[in-house]
Amino acid sequence: MRVSTAATAAALGAAALLASTAGTATATPQADPAGGHGRPHVVNLDGAQEVPDPGDPDGTGRFVYRISHGKLCYRLSVQDIATPTAAHIHIGQRGEAGPVIVTLNTPPVDGSSQGCIRAQRTQTPANQATVLTYWELEGIKRNPFFFYTNVHNAEFPAGAIRGQL
């Protein structure tokens, strides 16, 4: 039996959302998205992609990530936004707001942050925003369009800039 690409994508996206209690990961400060074996992915962030309301009209950013050997390594850079207060990867398609699946290292004003997040098997309610499950990592790898990165600040607490993976 052949399964359509859309059905596979939907199933993996749903599995990633439902499996968020199945594994963990922690962010570490050393990351080199340009290194490693996986191919780098470049995501451009801006305020127009934020929903339900637009974010910062002047803000921009770039999220470069690579998935390799069970971990996601990234570099997140921002420009022309007020001091960032948080950065995350969320599950949600373009035009949708969704729950946080993992917290990223917050970049400074007009600067960048980086980290590596190794997927783990278990996750608890207390650490679910700071860990990445195997299912979530696999979902990002196979169906990145089901996920987005955004950066928050005091002026735009729901998100100043966003980019669809």
TrEMBL record:
Signal peptide range: 1-27
Keywords: Signal
Ranges for domain CHRD: 39-165
InterPro entries with a match to the protein in the record: CHRD
Disordered, as annotated region: 26-60
Pfam families tied to this protein: CHRD (PF07452)
Keyword Signal: yes
SMART domains named among the record's database cross-references: CHRD (SM00754)
Protein name: CHRD domain-containing protein
UniProt organism field: Streptomyces bathyalis
Upper lineage: Bacteria, Bacillati, Actinomycetota, Actinomycetes, Kitasatosporales
